[in-house]
TrEMBL record, chain A:
The chain crosses the membrane at residues 82-100, 112-131. Residues 34-44 have a biased composition (Basic and acidic residues). Residues 1-77 are annotated as: Disordered. The lineage of its organism: Bacteria, Bacillati, Actinomycetota, Actinomycetes, Kitasatosporales. Keywords: Membrane, Transmembrane, Transmembrane helix. This is Uncharacterized protein. Residues 13-26 have a biased composition (Pro residues).
UniProtKB/TrEMBL annotation, chain B:
Pfam families: Rieske. Iron-sulfur subunit of the cytochrome bc1 complex, an essential component of the respiratory electron transport chain required for ATP synthesis. The bc1 complex catalyzes the oxidation of menaquinol and the reduction of cytochrome c in the respiratory chain. The bc1 complex operates through a Q-cycle mechanism that couples electron transfer to generation of the proton gradient that drives ATP synthesis. Keywords: 2Fe-2S, Disulfide bond, Iron, Iron-sulfur, Metal-binding. It comes from Streptomyces termitum. InterPro entries: Rieske_2Fe-2S (IPR017941), Rieske_2Fe-2S_sf (IPR036922), Rieske_Fe-S_prot (IPR014349), Rieske_Fe-S_prot_C (IPR005805). This is Cytochrome bc1 complex Rieske iron-sulfur subunit. GO terms for molecular function: 2 iron, 2 sulfur cluster binding; metal ion binding; monooxygenase activity; oxidoreductase activity, acting on paired donors, with incorporation or reduction of molecular oxygen.
Length: 136, 211
């Protein structure tokens, strides 16, 4: 094993190195400058999130492109909106059965009230949906 | 662009291409997000609202709904006890069934199950005095009242008002919706043409109501 990054013929004559007077001073990284290039230059096919995680995450820590959630309330709000919309949808399914039942029984007025309830519920869901269009 | 593919060496000048490739990868890997689910829920909700308005507007056919007052129709010369008869009244699409029970009671109902519109059958061997039976989901209706006694149907059967003449012939003269009495249904269809509906409780001439 040689110290150089480039393998050499072991049978080739090499200059005799004088023994070091003192241990080499520590410095971070490699003695080869090309090995000290950033990772994305040395291995351009490897991306910061290759194989896992969200590829949109570009940096660690706070700031743009960071991997942590910068606004946890946003996710909670979206989950709450979705849960509310699903609840309203279940109510609509129930109301539609009532509307059909009342209409078939001849209670047209009640059926129209039910239809109004369905439309209002749809407007509520529409509002939940349109609350923040840019949210993901 | 594959992840194993080498991007151009001039990274700074090809930022747009790299961004585009990254966008492609994001788009390819993205799953259905909660926002997508929210959009789907909103779409379904709108469909339900439209369906409710359509139902209230009368998109569903009710037994007996048609143009004007239904005309009396002779459906049989005679129905013997324990027998039933399938007929259509008042329109050709209004399937109905007439049942003569063992004690002589004559009853007429819509033959369309109120659950999922299967055909309702007369089963005289079921129950104590026979039942109206829907074989699709085991729906059972009382033969005397048309009300649901078992199974999933949400409401009773619409009724068909049958009368029997002195010569034994059976006539259908009107219909009543689910939950509506025969008199209410008859008066709704006939208006003030009948003495029965003008506030009195008189009989209908020589006809004897047996339903």
């Amino acid at each position: 094993m040689t110290d150089s990054a480039f393998p050499q013929d072991p049978r080739a004559p090499r200059p005799a190195d004088p023994p070091p007077a003192q241990p080499p001073s520590y410095h971070p990284g490699s003695a080869e400058p090309r090995l000290n290039r950033p990772v994305h230059e040395r291995y351009p096919q490897i991306r910061p999130t290759s194989g896992y995680a969200d590829p949109r995450v570009r940096h660690t820590g706070p700031g743009p492109g960071a991997g942590t959630e910068q606004e946890p309330e946003r996710s909670s709000k979206l989950s709450a909106r979705l849960a509310l919309a699903l609840t309203v949808l279940i109510g609509q399914l129930w109301a539609l059965t009532i509307v059909v039942d009342e209409w078939m029984s001849g209670n047209t007025g009640t059926a129209w009230w039910g239809a109004g309830f369905l439309v209002l519920s749809f407007l509520v869901v529409l509002g939940l949906w349109a609350l923040d269009p840019k949210d993901r | 662009m594959s992840v194993t593919e080498q991007p151009p060496a001039e990274g700074s000048r090809d930022t747009d291409a790299a961004q585009e490739a990254l966008h492609d990868r994001i788009a390819a890997d993205s799953l259905t997000t909660r926002r997508d689910y929210l959009r789907i829920v909103a779409t379904v909700s709108g469909g339900l609202a439209v369906g409710g308005v359509a139902v209230a507007s009368g998109i569903l056919h009710r037994h007996g709904d048609g143009d004007g007052t239904p005309e009396p129709k002779k459906i049989a010369d005679r129905i013997l006890p324990g027998e039933s008869l399938a007929f259509r009244y008042p329109g050709d699409e209004d399937r109905a069934i007439a049942v003569r029970m063992a004690d002589g009671t004559l009853a007429g109902y819509s033959a369309v199950c109120t659950h999922l519109a299967c055909a309702v059958l007369w089963r005289k061997e079921r129950g104590s005095e026979g039942e109206l039976y829907c074989p699709c989901h085991e729906g059972i209706f009382d033969a005397r009242t048309g009300e649901v006694t078992a199974g999933p149907p949400p409401r009773g059967l619409p009724k068909v008002l049958l009368i029997e003449q002195l010569d034994g012939s059976v006539w259908a003269i009107g219909t009543a919706r689910s939950g509506e009495s025969l008199q209410e249904g008859l008066c709704r269809q006939q208006g003030d043409a009948l003495r029965l509906c003008r506030g009195g409780a008189g009989a209908e001439g020589e006809r004897s109501e047996r339903t």
